[in-house]
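Work Package 4 report. The design task specified in the project plan requires that, given a folded chain encoded as structure tokens, an amino acid be chosen for each position. We show below one input record used in the internal validation round.
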């Protein structure tokens, strides 16, 4: 039982559930879901109780315990906002929370499993339907929450939050770091490329109708689906939830995230259409090709610049490290997405130039990423 952080927290969990369900509670088994402070807790079967729940907690003695507690509050606010305020069934429901014990109890979505686990095991071709469900769920989350930011901020107790200033402040930092990183690489970012970057960051800072809720980590490890049968997706991990440009959640369909070297062509696989159709149900502006293309290219560019901040760390690694190849793949995919959508032409050229610079600097990363035999969709980063 210590997997849940000790007997005192387990007792607190029993008391919380007994109060919620008005029924005696006996914990049968606890399984820690490493490496996170998350556990699946099985309960002795009674008609009043679910067979299991998922518990997330702040680890005892963690140095950033205050930050971790804030993340749990954010998750609870986002999940309650979706289920209770909007009636949206795209995520687990909050069963209860113990602020003193610093844990929350969530609906257990098992036997659903994480999509990235299925992709690693079977490859993307075996799970096209589940990838499409993932794309649709991401679009549906934005569609359902667009224009509802005030309700979410009220859930957080942040009615006076200047969200626009917050977004602009974070993006301003990204611009500064991009210019510094470009200079360090010997690939100065200026002139028309910098002007396009400023325009792109402006699009993200002022999303207009595209302002929507994100869980803050739109990757395949944070969506659960049945391994077989209906592909009904549920999104998880809302600890970093917040309102942002909706198309930031589409980046994972076009540009590899931390786990992958490639993600394939979402237009060819139908993922792009699945996402955009779902998004347009709540954000009609998504049907405007120019606005959609500009927003998507801007979001991909911002992601690539964040990943480029890892250059110094990757440069110090041993040749053959997959993270080097992944950074090149990220820059290539970002440039390719912008070119396909006829957006940011000068910044696109800059991204390709940096990718070529890195290929020359890292001969081990000079690979043909377009070769589907060597790099099929969702090739895993080692």
């Amino acid at each position: 039982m210590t997997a849940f952080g000790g007997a005192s927290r387990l007792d607190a969990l029993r008391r919380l559930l007994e109060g919620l369900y008005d029924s005696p509670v006996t914990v049968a088994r606890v399984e820690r879901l490493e490496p996170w402070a998350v556990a699946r807790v099985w309960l002795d079967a009674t008609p009043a109780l679910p067979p299991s729940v998922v518990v997330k907690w702040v680890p005892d003695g963690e140095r950033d315990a205050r930050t971790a507690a804030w993340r749990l509050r954010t998750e609870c606010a986002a999940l309650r906002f979706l289920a209770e305020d909007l009636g949206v069934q795209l995520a687990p429901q909050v069963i209860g929370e113990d602020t003193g014990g610093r844990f929350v109890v969530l609906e257990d979505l098992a036997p659903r499993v994480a999509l990235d686990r299925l992709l690693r095991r079977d490859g993307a071709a075996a799970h096209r339907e589940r990838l499409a469900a993932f794309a649709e769920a991401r679009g549906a989350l934005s569609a359902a929450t667009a224009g509802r930011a005030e309700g979410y901020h009220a859930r957080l107790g942040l009615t006076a939050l200047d969200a626009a200033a917050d977004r602009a402040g974070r993006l301003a930092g990204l611009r500064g770091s991009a210019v510094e990183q470009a200079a360090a690489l010997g690939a100065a970012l200026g002139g028309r490329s910098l002007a396009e970057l400023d325009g792109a960051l402006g699009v993200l800072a002022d999303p207009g109708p595209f302002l929507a809720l994100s869980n803050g980590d739109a990757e395949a490890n944070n969506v659960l689906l049945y391994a077989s049968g209906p592909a009904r997706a549920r999104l998880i991990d809302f600890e970093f939830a917040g309102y942002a440009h909706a198309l930031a959640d589409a980046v994972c369909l076009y540009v590899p995230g931390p786990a992958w070297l490639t993600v394939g062509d979402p237009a060819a696989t139908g993922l792009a259409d699945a996402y955009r159709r779902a998004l347009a149900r709540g954000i009609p502006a998504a049907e405007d090709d120019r606005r959609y293309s500009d927003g998507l290219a801007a979001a991909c560019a911002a992601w690539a610049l964040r990943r480029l901040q890892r250059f110094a760390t990757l440069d110090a690694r041993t040749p053959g490290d997959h993270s080097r190849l992944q950074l090149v793949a990220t820059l290539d995919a970002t440039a390719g997405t912008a070119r396909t959508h006829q957006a940011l032409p000068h910044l696109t050229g800059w991204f390709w130039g940096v990718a070529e610079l890195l290929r020359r600097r890292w001969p081990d990363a000079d690979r043909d990423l377009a070769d589907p035999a060597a790099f099929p969709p969702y090739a895993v980063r080692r």
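The chain has two domains: 2-107, 113-365. Validation will be extended to a larger panel in the next phase.
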